[in-house]
From TrEMBL:
Residues 1-33, 104-135, 556-628 are annotated as: Disordered. It comes from the Eukaryota. This is Golgin subfamily A member 6-like protein 6. Residues 566-584 have a biased composition (Polar residues). Residues 36-88, 138-172, 311-380, 514-551 form a coiled coil. One of its GO terms (cellular component) is Golgi apparatus. Residues 10-32, 107-117 have a biased composition (Gly residues).
Length: 628
């Protein structure tokens, strides 16, 4: 730019020097005049654009200055308000702290006085409640004051940030002002140069159109002067064309600069408007926050004044409260003495409780050991029980096998004897007379059948009685078994309770009870085994009895058939004595079967009696153990 201005400054001087020389050559002025006219038009346009640009720059500068002044005024107002608010808040904080200290002192004095005035518990509770309420309010006031101070510090920081931003904006405005001043200076220089060009052009035109002189003067000039003027005119035309080109370049450069300045002004204007809106919003938010804080401070001040009024009203009854405080101190001293005595008693009881806890721990440990021993004994008993059951099962199987073999042998013997008797009967029937056989059979049947029927009825009645007794004994046994199970469960529950520490019996009684229970359990198991054996024998005897009854019925039917056959064959053979002896043998066999059945029923009755004795013994021991 400096080089360009220096060239511009040198151009008019050269033109001024060459212009009077060029006046002598009027013949080469048409091209130069056209170029000068174009240059003049371009200069007029540039002057108009420069004037518009200056006006626009002045307007923007004025708007920026007004906005800057408004922002400065708003900032000063905000700073004044904030300083005022700070002073007010500090004054309020100091007054609140002084009032809080007075409240503390008055609360302590009022609490002491409130403890003496009324001896009732209701007034004392009211004084304590009011003191606690005043303490809570004091704490709330402190918290609110701290919050306000914190918010004020935050607002101060925000204001500092905003002030720094404003300073930055001011610095940018100052830079813009300096830039505009520089532009104005350059524009003034350009205007001066344009004026100089215009003056140079005017002088050139004047020199280009001199008044007409007579041909005699031209003719009088020598040819050398004509050649010099032509050279000067050519130099002038070259200078003018060069200046026109430079003017075009300067014009395009000025247009570019004006466009860039316009864009810069538009962007700066938009940014300035955005920041202005943001500042307005921030100022409005600050105003709202300050109003809220003012309202809160007014509310806190009103609440504090109300509390001060209440405390002043309470302080009127200080004399009565002092008397009440003395009485309460006396009562407190008496209660402290009573509490000391109670504490001593509690210490003694605590020692006893600790010793009892140690005893309980020892008992629990012993009970746990006994439980472990009992579990080991129970496992041993279960193993022995399984072994004995297996042995009993083997014995029952052996006994059943022996009974089965004995029954098979007996059936085989009976079949053989029946076959033999039938053969003998058939042999004797041929020799026995029919009439004697009929009379004997009639007499035998008339004499033996009623006795046999009566005997059979008696045996059936005894069998029913024995079966009923067996069912009763079985029910009693089941009842006794259930009772023993419930008793064992009850004792196990007691043992668990004693282990958990809820029950604390003596160790000796616990051991004796455990040993009694173990003995009773062993006895119960032994009796259960005996009962199982007796029940198995009873089942075997019942089976034998059924077999014998079936054999008796079969033999009776066989006897009737034999007697009928003998009666039918007596008329043919006539051997009555042999038939009578065979009938007597059959009757003996029947009587033997009846006696065997009676023996089986007697054995069943003895077993039932033994079971009833065992049950009675069990019932006698059960209440004794329950009472123990």
């Amino acid at each position: 730019m400096l080089k360009w201005f220096s060239n511009e400054e040198g151009g008019p001087g050269q033109g001024a020097l060459g212009s009077p020389q060029g006046g002598g050559g009027a013949g080469g002025g048409e091209g130069g005049q056209a170029a000068l006219v174009e240059v003049a038009e371009q200069l007029a346009q540039t002057e108009q654009l420069v004037a518009q640009l200056k006006e626009l720059i002045r307007e923007k500068d004025g708007s920026l200055r007004t906005k800057d002044e408004q922002l400065k005024a708003e900032k000063e107002a905000c700073e004044a308000k904030l300083s005022k608010m700070r002073l007010q808040n500090k004054a309020k904080v100091t007054s609140l702290s002084a009032q809080l200290e007075e409240l503390k002192k008055g609360g302590a004095a009022g609490g002491g006085a409130g403890g003496q005035g009324t001896p009732t518990h209701s007034k004392k509770g009211g004084a304590e409640g009011s003191e606690q309420a005043s303490r809570g309010k004091i704490l709330l006031l402190r918290k609110k004051v701290e919050e306000l101070e914190h918010q004020l510090s935050q607002r101060d920081e925000e204001l500092e940030v905003k002030s720094r931003e404003l300073e930055a904006q001011r610095q940018r405005g100052a830079d813009m002002d300096a830039m505009l001043v520089e532009r104005n200076r350059k524009l003034s220089e350009k205007e001066a140069y344009i004026v100089h060009l215009q003056t140079g052009m005017a002088t050139g035109e004047q020199t280009a159109t001199p008044p007409a002189q007579p041909d005699t003067e031209h003719r009088a000039l020598p040819e050398e002067s004509g050649a010099g003027s032509l050279a000067e005119l050519q130099l002038l035309v070259l200078n003018l064309t060069r200046k026109v080109g430079e003017g075009d370049e300067r014009y395009s450069l000025l247009q570019e600069q004006t466009e860039s300045l316009k864009e810069l002004l538009v962007t700066e204007k938009a940014a300035f408007e955005d920041k202005e809106n943001m500042y307005k919003q921030n100022i409005q938010t600050f105003k709202d926050i300050i109003l809220q804080k003012d309202n809160k401070l007014m509310e806190v001040n009103q609440m504090h004044e109300q509390e001060l009024f209440k405390l002043a009203a309470k302080s009127d009854a200080s004399a009565d409260l002092e008397q009440l405080l003395k009485a309460l101190k006396q009562k407190l001293h008496e209660k402290e003495e009573v509490l000391q005595g109670k504490n001593q008693v509690i210490d003694v009881f605590q020692g006893e409780v600790d010793s009892r806890d140690q005893q309980i721990k020892d008992l629990v440990e012993r009970a746990r050991r006994l439980q472990v021993e009992r579990e080991s004994l129970g496992s041993k008993m279960e193993a022995e029980k399984h072994v004995m059951r297996a042995q009993l099962r083997d014995l029952l199987e052996k006994h059943q096998g022996e009974l089965r073999r004995a029954a098979e042998c007996h059936e085989a013997q009976l079949a053989e004897r029946e076959q033999a008797l039938r053969g003998q009967l058939q042999e004797e029937l041929g020799r026995t007379p029919v009439a004697e056989l009929q009379t004997q059979t009639q007499a035998g049947s008339g004499g033996d059948s009623p006795a046999t029927a009566q005997r059979m009825n008696e045996l059936e009645a005894q069998a029913k009685l024995k079966s009923e007794e067996a069912s009763k004994s079985e029910a009693k046994f089941l009842k006794m078994k259930a009772w023993s199970k419930s008793r064992i469960r009850q004792l196990e529950d007691e043992l668990r309770k004693s282990q958990s520490g809820r029950v604390g019996p003596d160790v000796t009684s616990l051991r004796s009870r455990i040993t009694d229970l173990e003995e009773e359990r062993e006895e119960t198991l032994w009796k259960l085994e005996q009962y199982d054996e007796i029940k198995a024998k009873n089942d075997v005897l019942e089976a034998k009895l059924v077999v014998y009854e079936e054999q008796q019925r079969k033999m009776a039917s066989d006897l009737e058939q034999v007697t009928k056959r003998a009666a039918s064959q007596a008329s043919e053979s006539g051997s009555a004595d042999d038939a009578q002896s065979q009938v007597l043998d059959w009757q003996e066999m029947v009587s033997e079967a009846v006696t065997a059945r009676d023996r089986a029923r007697e054995e069943k009755a003895t077993m039932a009696l033994r079971m009833s004795h065992m049950e009675e013994e069990r019932e006698g021991k059960g209440p004794a153990t329950a009472g123990g």
